[in-house]
Design a protein that fits this description.
By secondary structure, the protein is of the alpha+beta class. It contains eleven helices and nine strands. It has a four-stranded mixed beta sheet with strand order 2-1-3-4. The protein has a three-stranded antiparallel beta sheet with strand order 7-8-9.
Length: 291
């Protein structure tokens, strides 16, 4: 039975992103429940996850609630040891745990001044001295982790781990606020922007509701620095190549056009998340390539 996971706005809730990545990036089944921040729906959602007061919060099949992303990571690692949430090698695992813990409690200037907003990227954002100090610390611990773990991958401790999931929103902040870091740190950010789970989350975040005005910043904008999506657009009607939604298998009711062909989906959200980044969705691309 899938685990239930309470989450907030995909574009803005950095902690929700961490929690969701602990499932999606490691192939753990989950049933997600969303509520928009700063609305009555948010505390109403969390009533079912007492004593949790924040997201993410998960409810296990026996009714046990585990709140806080670090606790969720540890509990999932215990229940799904084959998923590889933490590195198998003891030294790399120790490094990854240290990194996740520091991210969980540190970098307060970066988190406070540069709230995550995956819907926009700025040409510059005038980072404060405190933010610049956090960036220097990030570069130092990322370099240390790769050296200690002898990582030969784009990730901090070898294979993608919970430590990387915890720094994914930081990568989103560095990309969104165009913050100054060196070549190695920039490459790590780039790896996150190309990661399939990160791309899926951002695609959903672009279309799951209107902008939250509280996150707006008075800086000039630029194109998002991640991979450029394939060109697709919503259309009002079919007929479509496919009769069943590639995600649910249900009959199609909403449509998009890509490369001169029309494809169908079972609801507007399935269609719109696909329009936002078609290549982020393996089930859709498999269907497209099969025709």
């Amino acid at each position: 039975m899938p685990i239930d996971l309470a989450l907030g706005d995909r574009a803005y809730s950095s902690w929700s992103l961490r929690g969701w990545l602990l499932f999606d990036a490691f192939g753990i089944p989950v049933r997600t429940h969303f509520a928009r921040l700063y609305t009555e729906a948010f505390p109403a959602l969390l009533q079912d996850y007492a004593p949790a007061r924040t997201v993410p919060a998960m409810k296990l099949d026996d009714g046990t609630v585990v709140a806080d992303s670090l606790a969720i990571a540890e509990e999932l690692a215990s229940r799904f040891p084959e998923a590889g949430i933490w590195p198998a090698a003891p030294r790399a695992r120790a490094v990854a745990r240290q990194l996740a813990a520091e991210m969980h409690s540190g970098f307060t200037a970066l988190r406070g001044d540069c709230a995550m907003n995956l819907r926009v990227s700025y040409t510059e954002s005038a980072p404060s001295e405190a933010v610049l100090a956090d960036l220097a610390r990030l570069e130092a611990v990322w370099a240390w982790a790769r050296a200690e773990s002898d990582s030969g991958t784009p990730w901090l401790s070898g294979a993608y781990s919970a430590a990387d999931a915890f720094f994914a929103p930081v990568a989103g902040r560095l990309a969104g606020y165009n913050l100054p870091v060196g070549e190695a740190a920039a490459a790590y950010v780039e790896a996150h922007l190309h990661h399939p789970s990160f791309r899926r989350w951002r695609a959903m975040g672009l279309v799951d509701g209107p902008d939250q005005p509280v996150y707006a910043k008075p800086y000039p904008t630029r194109a998002w620095p991640g991979p450029e999506p394939l060109a697709a657009q919503a259309v009002v009607a079919g007929p479509s190549v496919n009769a069943a939604c590639p995600y649910s298998g249900d009959p199609v009711t909403h449509f998009l056009e890509m490369d001169g062909r029309v494809w169908g989906f079972c609801n507007a959200f399935c269609r719109d998340k696909t329009v936002a980044d078609p290549e982020a969705w393996p089930a859709f691309m498999k269907m497209v390539r099969a025709v």
